Backbone:
């Protein structure tokens, strides 16, 4: 893969990392014991029954969102580490190069289209 393409992909990944960390920090805090984990903050709206119900509902939403963003951030960090190690763009299943257009569209891809289809039962 061309160095310019790799630089473009790394720039996109670094932007994604900043965005994801910012989004996570809006409603959670980093876990001191695990740098890749965040802990959703429990909201506090008041002491009445209606406020308590809203707090629980919102906390559940925050946990779901936190989990999804953490997975996305983990994938971004893995892709950046792979780039830095010079191993980026190789399918983790078959070892073949991942199509450049796939990586430009989805920089966190770790499998080629053929292997992904097999995993999803589409091939």
Residues:
């Amino acid at each position: 893969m061309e160095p310019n393409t790799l630089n473009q992909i790394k720039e996109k990944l670094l932007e994604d990392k900043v965005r994801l960390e910012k989004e996570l920090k809006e409603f959670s805090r980093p876990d001191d014991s695990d740098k890749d984990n965040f802990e959703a903050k429990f909201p506090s709206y008041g002491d009445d029954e209606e406020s308590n119900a809203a707090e629980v509902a919102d906390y559940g939403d925050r946990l779901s969102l936190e989990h999804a963003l953490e997975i996305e951030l983990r994938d971004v960090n893995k892709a950046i580490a792979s780039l830095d190690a010079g191993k980026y763009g190789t399918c983790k299943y078959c070892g073949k190069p991942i199509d450049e257009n796939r990586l430009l569209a989805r920089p966190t891809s770790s499998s080629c289209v053929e292997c992904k289809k097999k995993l999803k039962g589409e091939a």
In short: The longest helix spans residues 49-84. The chain is about 60% helix and 10% strand. The chain has two domains: 3-87, 89-123. The helical segments are 3-27, 49-84, 100-105, 113-120.
